[in-house]
């Protein structure tokens, strides 16, 4: 169902944790220490469905349960289908594995020359610097290693990773991801960024993080100073539903922007969360208000136990079609499928072109009306008099 909440309403405050001093609430370490991680803790705050109880029992073998108090406040505890709830509270569906699904759906492990580093494209590397996150998304592409619930034994090797990048001059772009890189201490992060910045051939550093959404308190002035010092650092945040756009997230994005960090958003198309055009339109508008450019909309990767989130690609195309021409161009993300097995991101777009000949392109606009763009240049009349005739 489309999300229709008042467009001017942005959740703010401490919600269920009114009794906690503001100094604690605004401390990211307090938020981490007070995460909800067990069935008992969850049941203190809400009545769970059988489906959820069974999912939680299985989570310890797949991907741990953890929800920050900040994010928990966004859950509608009276609605089992709440789009925030679906993202972080496990369901029994996680234990059902389909034939099409894979543990390492993007084939990252086979392109990993040192632990924690993936080098698939010639000019860029993915540097997985931790297996921890502030909260765990039930559809996570890296659930094989994130939270280490599957005994994956993930141990990123910073020094080996840095040396690998130093000795590969073709690497111009480094993406720090994980897990969530912003869970590292300021000291560790500064060390990593300073080492990367010192490598002459590394032109572009970016971070993939859901911390601003789960734990906006982590975006401290001290962290922003580090980004200023080693910038430009680009960042992709990860918001799937407009309810996640809180006043605290908006303020965190503002701090990052003012520190010179360009912000993009990556959403995953998820059944029951954002698989309708109205919700997506509200989301992309909120992102722009927060200074965040909608960047990618991902078709969900084929991860094991993820089929209950899977949306038909035709639905995704319908959503993009409903955005294009109907809202600001900046608001429209690129819909992509990350090719299973490691073929990279492939853009998929609604088909506007009817035909292309040597003479013309025939296409439809956003309203379904047909237009023609000629490819020929046919002189009709001379409009500029030549010098000899004057
Ligand atoms: S924050 Fe990212 S890495 Fe962590 S669980 Fe969510 S999707 Fe996975």
From TrEMBL:
Question: Where in this chain does the record put each Radical SAM core domain?
Answer: 119-331
Q: Which reaction is recorded as catalysed by this protein?
A: L-lysine = (3S)-3,6-diaminohexanoate
Q: List the Gene Ontology MF annotations in alphabetical order.
A: 4 iron, 4 sulfur cluster binding; L-lysine 2,3-aminomutase activity; metal ion binding
**Modified-residue entries (N6-(pyridoxal phosphate)lysine), positions:** 345
For this protein, the Enzyme Commission number is: 5.4.3.2
Q: Which UniProt keywords apply?
A: 4Fe-4S, Iron, Iron-sulfur, Isomerase, Metal-binding, Pyridoxal phosphate, S-adenosyl-L-methionine
Which residues are involved in binding [4Fe-4S] cluster?
133, 137, 140
What family does the entry list?
Belongs to the radical SAM superfamily. KamA family.
Q: What is this protein called?
A: L-lysine 2,3-aminomutase
């Amino acid at each position: 169902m489309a999300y229709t909440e008042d467009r001017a309403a942005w959740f703010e405050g401490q919600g269920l944790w009114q009794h906690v001093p503001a100094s604690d609430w605004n401390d990211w370490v307090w938020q981490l220490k007070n995460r909800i991680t067990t069935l008992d803790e969850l049941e203190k705050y809400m009545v769970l469905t059988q489906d959820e109880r069974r999912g939680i029992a299985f989570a310890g073998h797949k991907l741990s349960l953890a929800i920050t108090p900040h994010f928990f406040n966004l859950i509608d505890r009276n609605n089992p289908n709440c789009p925030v709830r679906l993202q972080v509270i496990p369901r029994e569906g996680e234990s059902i594995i389909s034939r099409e699904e894979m543990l390492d759906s993007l084939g990252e492990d086979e392109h990993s020359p040192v632990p924690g580093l993936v080098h698939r494209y010639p000019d860029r590397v993915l540097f997985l610097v931790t297996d921890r996150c502030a909260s765990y998304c039930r559809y996570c592409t890296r659930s094989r290693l994130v939270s280490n619930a599957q005994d994956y034994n993930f141990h990123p090797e910073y020094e080996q990773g840095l040396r690998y990048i130093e000795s590969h001059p073709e690497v111009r772009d480094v993406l720090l991801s994980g897990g969530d890189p912003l869970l590292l201490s300021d000291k560790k992060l500064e060390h990593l960024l300073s080492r990367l910045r010192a490598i002459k051939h590394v032109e572009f550093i970016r971070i993939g993080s859901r911390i601003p959404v789960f734990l906006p308190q982590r975006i401290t002035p001290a962290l922003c100073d580090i980004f200023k010092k080693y910038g430009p650092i680009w960042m992709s945040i990860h918001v799937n539903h407009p309810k996640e756009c809180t006043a605290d997230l908006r303020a965190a994005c503002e701090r990052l922007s003012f520190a010179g960090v360009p912000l993009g958003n990556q959403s995953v198309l998820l059944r029951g969360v954002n698989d309708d055009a109205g919700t997506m339109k509200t989301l992309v508008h909120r992102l722009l208000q927060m200074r965040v450019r909608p960047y990618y909309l991902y078709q969900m990767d084929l991860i094991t136990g993820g089929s209950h989130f899977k949306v038909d690609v035709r639905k995704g195309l319908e959503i993009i079609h409903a955005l294009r021409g109907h809202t600001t161009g900046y608001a429209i993300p690129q819909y992509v499928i990350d090719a299973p097995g490691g073929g990279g991101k492939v853009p998929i777009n609604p088909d506007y072109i009817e035909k292309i000949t040597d003479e013309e392109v025939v296409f439809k606009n956003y309203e379904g009306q047909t237009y023609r763009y000629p490819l020929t240049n046919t002189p009709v009349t001379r409009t500029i008099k030549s010098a000899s005739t004057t």
